[in-house]
Automatic annotation (TrEMBL), chain A:
Residues annotated as transmembrane: none
Pathway: Amino-acid biosynthesis; L-leucine biosynthesis; L-leucine from 3-methyl-2-oxobutanoate: step 2/4
Function of the protein: Catalyzes the isomerization between 2-isopropylmalate and 3-isopropylmalate, via the formation of 2-isopropylmaleate.
Gene Ontology MF: a single term: metal ion binding
Catalytic activity of the protein: (2R,3S)-3-isopropylmalate = (2S)-2-isopropylmalate
One biological process term in Gene Ontology: L-leucine biosynthetic process
Domain Aconitase/3-isopropylmalate dehydratase large subunit alpha/beta/alpha: residue ranges: 11-448
NCBIfam families per the UniProt record, alphabetical: PRK05478.1, PRK12466.1
Cofactor: [4Fe-4S] cluster
Name recorded for this polypeptide: 3-isopropylmalate dehydratase
Matching PANTHER family: 3-ISOPROPYLMALATE DEHYDRATASE, HOMOACONITASE, MITOCHONDRIAL-RELATED
Automatic annotation (TrEMBL), chain B:
Keyword list, A-Z: Amino-acid biosynthesis, Branched-chain amino acid biosynthesis, Leucine biosynthesis, Lyase
Domain of life: Bacteria
UniProt name for this protein: 3-isopropylmalate dehydratase small subunit
Subunit annotation: Heterodimer of LeuC and LeuD.
GO cellular component, one term: 3-isopropylmalate dehydratase complex
Pathways per UniProt: Amino-acid biosynthesis; L-leucine biosynthesis; L-leucine from 3-methyl-2-oxobutanoate: step 2/4
Family: Belongs to the LeuD family. LeuD type 1 subfamily.
Enzyme class, spelled out: lyase
Gene3D superfamilies referenced in this protein's UniProt entry, alphabetically: Aconitase, domain 4 (3.20.19.10)
GO molecular function, one term: 3-isopropylmalate dehydratase activity
EC number: 4.2.1.33
Organism: Novosphingobium sediminicola
Record bears the keyword Nucleotide-binding: no
Length: 460, 195
């Protein structure tokens, strides 16, 4: 029997995709799937068309309208963003011309890229998937090597079938123990970034492992992997297990059986060498919330605002030493590729049921991650629970995760949001964003001020 | 693409961490599916007060840094959204190099594809050169400022691409035979990938 060096999962997938190595030592890595959206998709496809470069394998390229598409009922191509309609019509025309698969505005499968790709079985364990969208790392939750790229790299992948890249470094982040009640995958991600910085994972493929990760369902694993880009990681990955294969069984683009030897090889070997290892005690994590303007500005919800960069304190309007609980909020948002899947909506609805948002809340919104999530939630009556509590219930899309020029609030408004970025101006000029789990969002919407969901008992 | 060989310019100081691509080009400034017309929106949230009036406090609005070709920034520069529009906006404004203690990986890759040099130096070095005239020699991987010369790291392939102004797609298409052979074999090994 040949002796082989123990390998990490990321290295195994990388090795399985190297088509050639360049004289300078980069690899030409085969790309199995490309996903585009209307914000960057038309630009990449139009640029290829004008250069006379065809898409080498259109059957493995997908596109969806998610970023600036309207989420109000009865929507069409018109957007709240001025001039946004051109992004939709041009992406549609370019997708049809290139012969790729498009999930259009009114398609029942329309939804946020990183919600529908797993739902449809487009992302698979051991595959490589890229998209001109930083949160592509979400899809590593299925055991794929999935990462965000720019438009030029998307063109490169579509025109050549490969990307030219130096082999990335690897990092193991192991969550030992078990999460306490009321603590979620979102809190795991924020706790990691708070402890090790928004640049802490730079250039690495981060493998999440350990008993607390194994215990997460597939949707929660997506939430954890989603935030890896806020850690500056190239990608995140979780080794596939029975849960992964059970999740994918019967999905439209997934194989009918996962019985080839390739599937069983998809784990890091005992003794595999990572460039860096971080160990976190899952039981020590509390519900987290951001106080500032970077995801690294995250604290336990029962904590006080620490001393950080002056410009972050000035923007957010909170001084060092202040308790974060009780800070009045104006807007509440549940949505995004981080936290808008069915399990997220179920947990939020369980807390909301029989309660009402505070009268001081100007707007409270639930935007399901996909058409399929929306239909499943409605079949369970979750839409009614949210509506009775005072939340608007919308069509699927990225919505208030960022401000493209459409829907927003007066400068200075304070938002509690289940999204991934609390940057200055992310949700609109002057908007102060606090990111947290859906549980924290609904508890805060009910209280009218930042609140700890552990103080709310689910109602029968 | 314009090759990057040497550059002499003042490094405009933006010495705070986590300057994100939403700050570099706010989403509302991405007004078309094209790659041009973006320079006006560069740093729009900081650069203008209401009604597109220049904010006199913003570094690029100060006469000594107007039209800067180099920006000296803090750690994790270019974090956030993958939007290449951030790099297109910087390039259109005239920026050819960002100097920082570290970059978000997608932003750094976007810089290379557009002829901008993402130059990594230790934080103390970036702080000491910020606001001063520097000379960059990419072939030698050195940055000189006053009497000090610093060496900086860069991936071999990224360096070649910048020095020669190469188009990555044209370069990769030279390997199309090897890629096709690999794909042919992979169709048998992993048929489920090929839809």
């Amino acid at each position: 029997m040949a002796l082989t060096l123990p390998l990490t999962l990321a290295d195994k997938i990388w090795d399985a995709h190297v088509t050639a190595t360049t004289p300078a030592g980069s690899d030409l890595v085969a790309i199995d799937r490309v996903f585009l959206h209307e914000r960057t998709g038309a630009s990449a496809l139009k640029s290829m068309a004008s250069a006379g470069r065809p898409v080498v394998d259109p059957r493995r390229v997908f596109a969806v309208m998610d970023h600036i598409v309207d989420t109000r009922p009865g929507r069409g191509d018109k957007t709240l963003m001025l001039g946004g309609q051109a992004f939709i019509t041009e992406t549609r025309a370019a997708a049809i011309a290139a012969g790729i698969t498009l999930f259009d505005v009114t398609d029942p499968d329309q939804g946020i890229t990183h919600v529908i790709s797993p739902e449809l079985g487009i992302v698979l364990p051991g595959c490589t998937l890229v998209a001109p969208d930083s949160h592509t790392c979400t899809q590593g939750a299925l055991g794929a090597l999935a990462w965000g790229i720019g438009s030029s790299e998307a063109e490169h992948a579509m025109a050549t079938g490969v990307l030219r890249l130096p082999r990335p470094k690897t990092m193991l982040v192991r969550f030992d123990g078990a999460l306490r009640p009321g603590v979620t995958a979102k809190d795991m991600a924020l706790a990691l970034i708070a402890a090790h910085g928004a640049g802490g994972g730079a250039g690495h493929v981060v493998e999440f492992a350990g008993p607390a990760v194994r215990a997460l369902d597939i949707e929660a694993r997506m939430t954890l992997c989603n935030m890896a880009t806020e850690f500056a990681a190239m990608a995140a990955i979780i080794a596939p297990d029975e849960k992964t294969y059970a999740y994918l069984a019967g999905r439209r683009y997934a194989p009918t059986a996962f019985d080839a030897p390739y599937w069983t090889s998809l784990h890091s070997d005992e003794g595999a060498r990572f460039d860096r290892t971080i160990v976190i005690d899952a039981a020590a994590i509390a519900p987290m919330i951001t106080w500032g303007t970077s995801p690294e500005h995250a604290i336990p919800i029962d904590g006080v605002v620490p001393s950080g960069p002056t410009r972050a304190h000035d923007y957010i309007g909170l001084a060092p030493g202040a308790a974060i609980i009780g800070t009045p909020i104006d807007v509440a948002f549940i949505g995004s590729c981080t936290n808008a899947r069915l399990s997220d909506l179920r947990r939020a609805a369980a807390l909301v049921k029989g309660r009402h948002i505070a009268p001081s809340i100007q707007k409270a919104l639930v935007v399901p991650g996909s058409g399929a999530v929306k239909r499943a939630a409605e079949a369970e009556g979750l839409d009614k629970i949210f509506a009775e509590a005072g939340f608007e219930w919308r069509e699927s899309g990225c919505s208030l995760c960022f401000f493209a020029g459409g829907e927003s609030f007066p400068a200075g408004s304070r938002s509690i949001s289940s999204t991934n970025r609390n940057f200055e101006g992310r949700q609109g000029p002057g908007i102060r964003t606090h990111i947290a789990s859906p549980e924290v969002v609904v508890a805060s919407a009910i209280a009218g001020a930042i609140a700890d969901p552990r103080d709310l008992e689910p109602q029968a | 693409m314009t090759p990057f060989t040497t550059l002499s310019a003042i490094a405009a100081p933006m010495m705070f961490d986590n300057i994100d691509t939403d700050a570099i080009i706010p989403s509302r400034e991405m007004k078309s599916t094209g790659r041009t017309g973006l320079a006006e929106g560069l740093f729009a949230g900081w650069r203008y007060v209401e009604g597109r009036v220049p904010n006199p406090d913003f570094v690029l609005n100060r006469p000594e840094y107007a039209g800067a070709r180099i920006i000296a920034g803090g750690a994790n520069f270019g974090c956030g959204s993958s939007r290449e529009h951030a790099v297109w906006a910087l390039a259109e404004y005239g920026v050819r190099c960002i100097i920082a203690p570290g970059f978000a990986p997608i932003f750094a890759a976007n810089c290379i594809r557009n002829g901008l040099l993402p130059l990594v130096l230790p934080r103390e070095a970036v702080e000491s050169i910020a606001g001063r005239e520097v000379y960059i020699n990419l072939a030698a991987q050195t940055l000189t400022c006053g009497d000090e010369t610093y060496s900086f790291p860069i991936e071999a392939e990224a360096k070649d691409m910048l020095l020669e102004g190469l188009d990555a797609i044209d370069l990769t298409l030279k390997s199309r035979t090897a890629i096709a052979a690999w794909t042919h074999a992979d169709r048998t090994a992993r048929p489920w990938i090929y839809l």
